[in-house]
Amino acid sequence: WRGMAEDFGGLGDLGLGDLAHDVPEPAFFQDGDVAEYYSRTNKRWMPATVRLGTRPAGAGTRICYNVHARTGGLKAQLREDVPLSMLRRPLADGEAVELYSSSRGRRWVPARVDGAPSTLHGLALRLDEDGTRAQRVPPARVRRRFEEGEAVWVFAAAVGWVDGVVDSTVGGAAVALDFGAHVGGALPSASSDVSMAFGVAVEGQVASTGSDGVGDEVHTTVPVRYPEVHSSEWVPSYLVVRAAASGWTPQAM
Predict the structure, then answer these.
(1) In sequence order, what are the residues at sequence separation of 6 or more whose Cβ sits closer than 8 angstroms to the Cβ of residue 133?
(2) Residue 73 dihedral angles phi and psi, to the nearest 5°
(3) Which three-class secondary structure state does DSSP give residue 160?
(4) pLDDT band at residue 16 using 50, 70 and 90 as cut-offs
(5) Which of 104, 163, 224, 240 has the most CB atoms in a 10 Å sphere around its CB?
(6) 200 confidence band (pLDDT: 50, 70, 90)
């Protein structure tokens, strides 16, 4: 993906290259993977199939992600060279998420997927606060949530997959992973007082908020600690995968 190597340029300095599960030309998705594509025009997630391609890059080539996105009919729309910030793996039953709730103060609240999710027909969620069940929730109002102490994989195009742990003390001050302004709300900007490497939403920019309050805040940032090198940073959630997700490992992809 264009620019990702520069974003993760610090990994080599931290010695993470030795920790990465590297493969030739590492890719976040593999050819034929099922994913979701975010349409900025329609402000919604669409089911998609990923097709890997290549683009010229300097004297060589780089991997790019082309997607066939479906709007509900049989016809799929081709989108070429899609940035990872506009893709995500489908949510799973029981997965920790955040729901943007207008009725609860127009904020992101913690919840879990409660039933088989559908990108086209909506999600059923169980709210952590009081157990309320919400049904047919538009996927654009739902984003992944990573919990304290959770083992994760972080993707860095320059080195591949790196082991990490979600750590709320990143930046020198504890944050509430459920409701903290830096994790549970709008993405912090580069001028934030929190020490972080990233503050991006869709296509590398902190997106404006739309009339429904959600805007393009379809991802958040995750505080990740790399235990073996005693370093940490804030990472966009679209570059993070749960280590315990259905036995997923980088080698299995």
Answers:
(1) 114, 124, 125, 126, 127
(2) -90, -170
(3) strand
(4) very low
(5) 224
(6) very low
